[in-house]
Write a structure and sequence with these properties.
The structure is a single chain. Helix content is about 45%, strand content about 5%. It is mainly α. Helix 2 packs across helix 5 (about 110-125) and helix 4 crosses helix 5. The longest helix has 19 residues, at about 1-20. The protein is globular, with a radius of gyration of 16 Å.
Protein backbone atom coordinates (compact mmCIF):
# COMPACT_ATOMS: atom_id res chain seq x y z
CA UNK A 1 0.00 0.00 0.00
CA UNK A 2 2.86 2.37 0.81
CA UNK A 3 4.47 1.66 -2.58
CA UNK A 4 1.14 2.40 -4.25
CA UNK A 5 0.92 5.81 -2.50
CA UNK A 6 4.51 6.61 -3.41
CA UNK A 7 3.87 5.76 -7.06
CA UNK A 8 0.73 7.93 -7.06
CA UNK A 9 2.62 10.82 -5.50
CA UNK A 10 5.41 10.51 -8.07
CA UNK A 11 2.89 10.42 -10.92
CA UNK A 12 1.10 13.49 -9.56
CA UNK A 13 4.38 15.38 -9.30
CA UNK A 14 5.28 14.42 -12.88
CA UNK A 15 1.91 15.56 -14.21
CA UNK A 16 2.14 18.88 -12.38
CA UNK A 17 5.68 19.47 -13.60
CA UNK A 18 4.74 18.58 -17.18
CA UNK A 19 1.81 20.96 -17.02
CA UNK A 20 4.30 23.74 -16.33
CA UNK A 21 6.34 22.99 -19.45
CA UNK A 22 5.86 25.59 -22.10
CA UNK A 23 4.05 28.01 -19.87
CA UNK A 24 4.98 31.60 -19.42
CA UNK A 25 3.84 34.30 -17.08
CA UNK A 26 2.73 36.58 -19.93
CA UNK A 27 -1.01 37.07 -19.91
CA UNK A 28 -1.00 38.74 -23.31
CA UNK A 29 -3.89 36.61 -24.56
CA UNK A 30 -4.10 34.76 -27.84
CA UNK A 31 -1.98 31.81 -28.78
CA UNK A 32 1.10 33.89 -29.53
CA UNK A 33 1.53 35.13 -25.97
CA UNK A 34 1.58 38.71 -27.23
CA UNK A 35 4.57 38.06 -29.51
CA UNK A 36 4.82 39.47 -32.99
CA UNK A 37 3.84 37.11 -35.81
CA UNK A 38 6.59 34.76 -36.94
CA UNK A 39 7.92 36.02 -40.25
CA UNK A 40 10.63 33.39 -40.49
CA UNK A 41 13.21 36.19 -40.84
CA UNK A 42 14.88 35.86 -37.46
CA UNK A 43 18.57 35.05 -37.44
CA UNK A 44 20.99 34.69 -34.56
CA UNK A 45 23.30 37.55 -33.71
CA UNK A 46 26.51 37.51 -31.68
CA UNK A 47 24.68 38.78 -28.58
CA UNK A 48 22.43 35.73 -28.49
CA UNK A 49 19.33 37.61 -29.60
CA UNK A 50 17.56 37.05 -32.86
CA UNK A 51 17.07 39.86 -35.33
CA UNK A 52 13.32 39.65 -34.69
CA UNK A 53 13.87 40.64 -31.05
CA UNK A 54 13.40 37.27 -29.30
CA UNK A 55 16.21 36.27 -26.98
CA UNK A 56 16.62 32.48 -27.36
CA UNK A 57 18.06 32.25 -23.84
CA UNK A 58 14.98 33.92 -22.37
CA UNK A 59 12.60 31.92 -24.57
CA UNK A 60 14.33 28.70 -23.45
CA UNK A 61 14.21 29.74 -19.79
CA UNK A 62 10.50 30.64 -19.96
CA UNK A 63 9.36 27.75 -22.13
CA UNK A 64 11.73 24.88 -21.38
CA UNK A 65 13.59 25.74 -18.19
CA UNK A 66 10.96 24.44 -15.79
CA UNK A 67 11.68 20.94 -17.10
CA UNK A 68 15.26 21.04 -18.44
CA UNK A 69 18.60 21.90 -16.85
CA UNK A 70 20.81 24.17 -18.94
CA UNK A 71 23.46 26.12 -17.04
CA UNK A 72 23.79 28.78 -19.76
CA UNK A 73 20.11 29.66 -19.28
CA UNK A 74 20.38 29.33 -15.48
CA UNK A 75 17.67 26.65 -15.38
CA UNK A 76 17.51 23.57 -13.19
CA UNK A 77 14.53 21.56 -14.40
CA UNK A 78 14.12 18.03 -13.06
CA UNK A 79 11.53 16.47 -15.41
CA UNK A 80 13.25 16.35 -18.80
CA UNK A 81 16.81 15.40 -19.64
CA UNK A 82 19.67 17.53 -18.35
CA UNK A 83 20.75 19.20 -21.59
CA UNK A 84 24.23 19.97 -20.26
CA UNK A 85 24.80 16.24 -19.89
CA UNK A 86 23.00 15.25 -23.10
CA UNK A 87 24.68 17.93 -25.27
CA UNK A 88 22.28 17.51 -28.20
CA UNK A 89 22.90 19.02 -31.61
CA UNK A 90 20.45 21.56 -33.05
CA UNK A 91 18.67 18.96 -35.22
CA UNK A 92 17.97 16.75 -32.21
CA UNK A 93 16.63 19.69 -30.20
CA UNK A 94 14.46 20.88 -33.11
CA UNK A 95 13.02 17.38 -33.51
CA UNK A 96 12.25 17.21 -29.78
CA UNK A 97 10.53 20.61 -29.93
CA UNK A 98 8.38 19.39 -32.84
CA UNK A 99 7.58 15.87 -31.65
CA UNK A 100 7.46 16.36 -27.89
CA UNK A 101 9.02 13.10 -26.71
CA UNK A 102 7.75 11.56 -23.46
CA UNK A 103 5.68 13.98 -21.40
CA UNK A 104 6.91 17.01 -23.34
CA UNK A 105 4.14 18.67 -25.35
CA UNK A 106 4.79 18.85 -29.09
CA UNK A 107 5.30 22.11 -30.97
CA UNK A 108 6.07 24.23 -27.91
CA UNK A 109 7.85 26.62 -30.26
CA UNK A 110 7.54 26.97 -34.01
CA UNK A 111 9.35 28.42 -36.98
CA UNK A 112 12.34 30.69 -36.54
CA UNK A 113 11.85 30.83 -32.77
CA UNK A 114 12.16 27.03 -32.53
CA UNK A 115 15.23 27.13 -34.76
CA UNK A 116 16.85 29.85 -32.66
CA UNK A 117 16.23 28.00 -29.39
CA UNK A 118 17.48 24.71 -30.89
CA UNK A 119 20.68 26.42 -32.01
CA UNK A 120 21.05 28.16 -28.63
CA UNK A 121 20.81 24.83 -26.80
CA UNK A 122 23.25 23.14 -29.20
CA UNK A 123 25.74 26.02 -28.85
CA UNK A 124 25.53 26.18 -25.04
CA UNK A 125 24.79 22.71 -23.65
CA UNK A 126 27.65 21.41 -21.54
CA UNK A 127 29.64 24.64 -21.63
Amino acid sequence: MRLHRLALAALAALVLAAAGCGGDDDDGGGDTGGAAPDTGAQTSTAGGETSGGSDPRQVFANTCGSCHTLAAADTEGQVGPNLDELQPDADRVRKAIEEGPGVMPNNLLEGAEADAVAQYVADNAGK
